[in-house]
Amino acid sequence: MKESSAITKTTFKRLAEDKETDIVIIPGDLTKNGELESHKSFIKELYKLKESGKKIFVITAGHDYGNSFAFKNDEKIEVEGADFEALPEMYKDFGYGNAIAFDEPTHSYVAEIAEGIRMLGICCDSPNQPKGAIDERHMAWAKAQIDKAKADGCSIFAICHYPIIPSVPVFDLVGDAKIKEWRMVASFLADNGVELVLTGHMHIQSINEFHSEKGNRLIDICTSCLAGCPAKYRKITVNESSQMKVETIDIEDFGWDMQGLTVQEYCYNQFKNAIVVRVYNALKGGKGIVKHLKKLGMEFISTATVGKLGRILFIKVPQPLRKKKLTDFIGETGVNIFLGDMPYTEGTPEFDVMSRFFKNFSFITKKIEPKLSKDGVKIDLTDMLLNTVGNNKPYSDNNAEFILK
What we know:
Radius of gyration: 23 Å
Largest sheet: 7 strands, mixed
Number of strands: 14
Strand content: 15-25%
Distance between the termini: 41 Å
Shape: globular
CATH class of the largest domain: Alpha Beta
CATH topology of the largest domain: Purple Acid Phosphatase, chain A, domain 2
Number of helices: 13
Strand order of the largest sheet: 5-6-7-8-9-11-10
CATH superfamily of the largest domain: Metallo-dependent phosphatases
Order of helices and strands: HEHEEEHHEEEHEHEEEEEHHHHHHHE
Number of domains: 2
């Protein structure tokens, strides 16, 4: 939170100097918790960027209104927050003011960002519908805008704060990790001629494809949070032949004391430590025997190696991992998922040890799978988890090329 202002200013300055870039798109969560002062500060930076000649389009999301708070040292204090109803006026010069169509209940809108190209901004985080959902009324409005774009001879793509396609397979099981009823929404967009959606929310770098039952494709490019690991943003180029090139760019040094580390190393360590702290916090509290067992778990995980855990669970651990601290293994695995291009593919020691673990405990996963399966989609938990830590797609999550129809 302290660093976010410096990161934003440094990145916006770099964007302003990038003469190849015409349009900047930010799909929601423009502030931490809707603090009015944060909105004012951010809008000030948007105007500076706009002065460089960029067209800027934003949508808002759940972190942009509601219960706002800040910190004074370690003390959490309430501050004035922005009202949901006021957001379109606040961001009128960044998409809302020149909208072709505007949906009042959700603040979704359509803008023509270039000649013959329209952007459907889907806001699915309003107080007027379930969080992270697109209801029937909202979908009917979206279809009308897509049909209007086609009738006017325009191509159309979408932006949405929530990923439409789960960024990694296991996120299909996490309710808030993607749009609700995502297969239905993805099919709706693909079958109505929307082939591309740009998303955020999950602080992750991912590119995924979905093919509807009718054979139509949707590409979901999810980009991580600017202020935090993996400290990257996207540059997307589409040429006259409908070739789309996606590049991932590292955030530059933003003037913070990073003790000799690069921005990426600094943010990586922050995120890794945060994951380990969450594990430790999960092992605190409780009463009676639960508290005692958690204490034992804390003592074990604080000192254990991957090799030691393997011996306890009767799993052969590859030599390179035997002396690795268990907390380092957990933290690194977690961070690598969010970096994109997850490295623990088949043939690596990490994949080997995890696949052996799931094989040994398949009697448990097989009992869990029927409870997780829904909407007629059967879950293979082992395959899902292994394909979450190891990217099995034919393209990168960070740099890829596609031919758009």
